[in-house]
Design brief:
Largest sheet: 6 strands, antiparallel
Helix content: 10-25%
Order of helices and strands: HHHEEEEEEHEEEE
Structural class: alpha+beta
Strand content: 35-45%
Length: 245
């Protein structure tokens, strides 16, 4: 009688069986990974202490993010506009010719100060910055202070020393303007307005803003050789800024 060997089937490993190495950490999610790392690195630390450390770390991260956001918002979120003052000015010649046209012969010197009060944002000119001189509402001259692309750093001040003059600066004065000049000429004190005009862009802001300021000056005529006249500092009035894009 023939006998055939009987083979006993051996258990086969299934790919569905969990692998200890991979499930110890990732099978439990982020918390499982955290516990596994703590068990491996610092087994002497209790579970409660681990939870406290994790909670504190999360809170500190959130707090740091909130503080950073507040600092960035304070630094770049709110614009403080430039301030403009005339710190000194002197008028040594101011006479009016009426023929063939009304024109001033004048010499005017002044110190114009522009300050950027922002502690983080610089300011860049996107158009030339100019100062115009007017009498009785009529411009008779203008000077350029800065070209396009000039930058005023955060918290800094720019001082412009201007010395202007002409022998025949045309001014469109009517009869009323000529009469006003005669009245002021009789006293030797003249009302001259300096108007600042330009366009700027603040750092981290896309919008361009018009920069306009008016500085009404009361100037005592002081020809060369006469005692110097004390000038009272004038704070210029800023026009409401417009956004141009």
């Amino acid at each position: 009688m023939l006998q055939f060997p009987i083979s006993t089937p051996q258990p086969q490993s299934s790919s569905s069986e969990p692998k200890i190495g991979s499930t110890m950490c990732c099978g439990g999610g982020a918390g499982g990974c955290y516990d596994a790392c703590c068990d491996a690195c610092c087994p002497c630390v209790s579970y409660d202490a681990r939870e406290t450390i994790l909670c504190c770390a999360v809170c500190l991260t959130v707090l740091a993010g909130a503080v950073l956001l507040a600092v960035l918002l304070a630094a770049y979120g709110f614009v403080r506009h430039l301030s403009v003052t005339v710190d000194d000015a002197s008028l040594t010649r101011f006479s009016l010719a009426t023929t063939p046209a009304t024109a001033f012969a004048y010499n005017l010197s002044l110190t114009l100060v522009v300050r950027n009060p922002n502690w983080a944002m610089s300011v860049r000119t996107t158009a030339p910055l100019e100062a115009g001189y007017s009498f009785d509402g009529q411009r008779f001259d203008r000077v350029r202070l800065a070209d396009e692309g000039d930058t005023l750093p955060a918290g800094k001040t720019r001082v412009y020393h201007l010395a202007s003059g002409a022998d025949g600066a045309y001014v469109a004065l009517g009869n009323a303007g000529v009469a006003e000049f005669a009245r002021e000429n009789a006293t030797g004190t003249f009302q001259v307005e300096v108007a600042l005009a330009g366009e700027v862009r603040y750092q981290a802001h896309l919008a361009k803003r018009r920069l306009e300021a008016t500085c009404p000056l009361t100037l005592q005529l002081a020809p060369p050789g006469t005692p110097a006249v004390v000038f009272q500092k004038v704070k210029c009035k800023l026009a409401k800024p417009d956004k141009n894009g």
